[in-house]
Amino acid sequence: MRERTQVLIAGGGPAGATAATLLAQQGIDVVLLERERFPRYHIGESLLPSLLPVLDIMGARETVEQHGFVRKTGAFYGWGGQEWALRFDDPARPAGHSFQVVRSQFDHLLLQHARHQGADVREESQLRRIALSDGRATTASWSAGDGRDGEIDFTHLIDATGRAGMLGARQLRARRVHDVFRNVAAWGYWRGAAALPDAPEGAIGVFSLPDHGWLWAIPLHDGTLSVGLVTDKRSFNQAKDNHGSIDAVYHEALARCPLLARMLAGARQVSALKVESDYSYTSDAFCGPGYYLAGDAACFLDPLLSTGVHLAMYSGLLSAASIAGNLHGEVDEADARRFYQTTYQNAYERLLVLVSAFYRIHDGRDAYFRQAQALSHRDQQGLRLHESFLNIITGEEDLHDAQQDRLNSLYEKLRTPLTGHRAQGLGGHGTSQMLPLPATPDHAAAGLYLCLTPYATLRPIP
């Protein structure tokens, strides 16, 4: 069986579903292949307010709002010897709330929405291989759970296959693992936990441990609390050897966090532990002739600041607009790819710097943990670290004349409070200050900017 589509999307998670929705709404022919049958389990339950404008653009905001997810109005940090609450209704934030979601349900809602908007969504259909002709992605082979298989030709491909990275990681071998954030996460679900005191409604709790590692606590609308431990691999393996099991490591860590221990005092664990290694990586290029890498297929950070779904949907929007602009004849394909590469890479790099900086103010941890979470010289190669820090601090884009400072001095700059923000955490810095949508000429990249009405596309600077 051989067929053709304008756009093939591999993967039905938030990145793929976002792109499929935005393309199908424009009448563009879209086929989405998803390996599994939704709903399916996934971690990454705490969402950022920056997602709400993307849901608005997709027309999916009302569906998500009405589902009943916990309304997340902020975050609570017990970090580096400080305790503070971050409320999303502070000035200049993109929305006053976000959501704590059961990812199986959230992802299913987005995939159904893409289908309802006209995308040809095929579950239990797995991408097998991408054929390249003179370096350009042109054809995909696939197989279905019912034994069918076939090939599909396309004009553009969006690889949203997650950390598996079908094209970028497996075929092109373009993935580069960072030295930082080689951490291990172990998590489970609890019922009957007490509410987090003195925290915004529905807040995530993030707690640094006194020696190394940190814990999360996320309230979910099914009445459970997601509780996870993150630490570096060496410390995790040493603790497992000392305590005899992963469960013992997990429970010992919970006991060392007094606030979380009090929350769980009358609760019971209702699931087995899940474990995953969190490797931070990026790709040599986020796009190429005929293809775009979106979400975790392009890069992965760390769960600390809940950036995974943000980057996925952000890149889904950017890739859809880049492809639409080219298919509508509004921008050249090479220019569209430069826009995507520049914009998505900048977003990833700024978050990489922020997460590393957050780890560096983890007071009291041992020397190895401090070193393990810091950007190495190899990590810094190819990154515009000075520019990234100053963009976070000031929001300015035109920094071509900036001089390179020492990395440690930049971390100190990042701790300086923003005007009008309390001097807590990272000086009041957050994703709303560093990831504005490039939707005006002032925020253009590679000479192009996002136009969101009547549909998501690209426009050249007038």
From TrEMBL:
GO terms for molecular function: monooxygenase activity. The lineage of its organism: Bacteria, Bacillati, Actinomycetota, Actinomycetes, Kitasatosporales. The keyword Transport does not apply. It holds the Pfam family Trp_halogenase. This is Putative halogenase. Keywords: Monooxygenase, Oxidoreductase. Belongs to the flavin-dependent halogenase family. Bacterial tryptophan halogenase subfamily.
